[in-house]
């Protein structure tokens, strides 16, 4: 299911949702309702933009992002599934899993009573490489676009054996400058520091970004705020079903190597705060069990 006219016929909603081809082979759902605007690529069910009406963007998309079939998009909300980071034992398997670079199906879309719009994506079983993932399951991403953005990543184990599940909604947020922000909500949490070889450390106070930051905070379901004194706003990240929070800024050298961060200073205008189940918090999903990771993003003036 990826033919544009079929998608528009089956799931388009007058004055709320249409599907367009944003680049060759890249179909994007465009939502605009009384509350907000959003775009979501069918590849990866990758939310690219979200902006409440009359407010600033809540999601960062690199100005140099490439919309190319089979490549992850730099910015937005990549869906990392069914593992986060490197695969536990196979270094040749793709970082952050395979879900973010394959086409998802749209399985439902409907207006909500309060004028919000909901769209549901499903990862087709045919897009799960058997050699990397020999498990029977159903994976859906439910996205609700209102004044707040809500995303539910739902995994059902439809087989008869348990499997490990690592995952993240790897969200890029826009900031005025790394020097102007702090992240509140993780004081006292322990974290794995990827910059220093996965050492276990403890957070004291708010998080600031004076250099490269790549951390997996463990055993926390806390709401986090990105407090941005330069933009006079707070982005609130509420979540459930997620025991890890990843905080990432690549800083100058790593961003330059990636080549899709825009200008030399592109890294200064973004911050990833990812709601995850990673490292020690990887889940085991028993046969017949279902797990939902939910995030709710909103903007508030300071
Ligand atoms: O370039 P990618 O594969 O999208 O990954 C970006 C980053 O994603 C973060 O979640 C990881 O903690 C980083 O280590 C990684 O560099």
Automatic annotation (TrEMBL):
Assigned EC number: 5.1.3.15
Catalytic reaction list: alpha-D-glucose 6-phosphate = beta-D-glucose 6-phosphate
GO cellular component assignments: cytoplasm
Example GO BP: carbohydrate metabolic process
Entry annotated with the keyword Transmembrane helix: no
First and last residue of the signal peptide: none
InterPro entries xrefs: Aldose_1/G6P_1-epimerase (IPR008183), G6P_1-epimerase (IPR025532), Gal_mutarotase_sf_dom (IPR011013), GH-type_carb-bd (IPR014718)
Active site: 170, 274
Pfam family, one: Aldose_epim
Keywords annotated in UniProt: Isomerase
One of the record's GO molecular function terms: carbohydrate binding
Keyword Isomerase: yes
Protein family membership: Belongs to the glucose-6-phosphate 1-epimerase family.
Protein name: Putative glucose-6-phosphate 1-epimerase
Organism: Ferriphaselus amnicola
């Amino acid at each position: 299911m990826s033919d544009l006219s079929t998608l528009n016929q089956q799931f388009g909603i007058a004055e709320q949702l249409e599907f367009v081809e944003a680049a060759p082979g890249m179909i994007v759902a465009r939502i605009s309702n009384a509350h907000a605007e959003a775009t979501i690529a069918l590849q990866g069910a990758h939310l690219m933009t979200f902006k409440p009406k009359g407010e600033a963007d809540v999601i960062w998309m690199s100005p140099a992002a490439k919309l190319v079939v089979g490549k992850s998009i730099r910015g937005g909300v990549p869906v990392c599934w069914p593992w986060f980071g490197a695969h536990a034992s196979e270094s040749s398997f793709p970082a952050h899993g395979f879900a973010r670079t394959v086409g998802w199906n749209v399985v439902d879309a409907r207006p909500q009573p309060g004028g919000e719009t909901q769209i549901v994506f499903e990862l087709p079983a045919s897009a799960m490489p058997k050699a990397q993932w020999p498990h029977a399951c159903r994976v859906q991403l439910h996205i609700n676009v209102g004044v707040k953005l809500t995303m539910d990543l739902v995994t059902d184990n439809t087989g008869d054996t348990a499997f490990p599940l690592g995952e993240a909604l790897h969200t890029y947020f826009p900031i005025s400058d790394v020097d102007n922000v702090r992240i509140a909500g993780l004081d006292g949490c322990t974290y794995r520091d990827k910059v220093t070889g996965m050492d276990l450390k403890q957070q004291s106070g708010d998080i600031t970004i004076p250099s490269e930051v790549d951390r997996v905070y463990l055993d926390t379901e806390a709401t986090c705020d990105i407090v941005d004194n330069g933009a006079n706003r707070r982005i609130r990240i509420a979540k459930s079903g997620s025991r890890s929070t990843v905080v990432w800024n690549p800083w100058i050298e790593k961003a330059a190597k990636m080549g899709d961060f825009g200008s030399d200073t592109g890294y200064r205008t973004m911050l990833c705060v990812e709601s995850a189940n990673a490292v020690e918090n990887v889940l085991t999903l028993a046969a017949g069990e279902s797990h939902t990771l939910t995030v709710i993003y909103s903007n508030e003036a300071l």
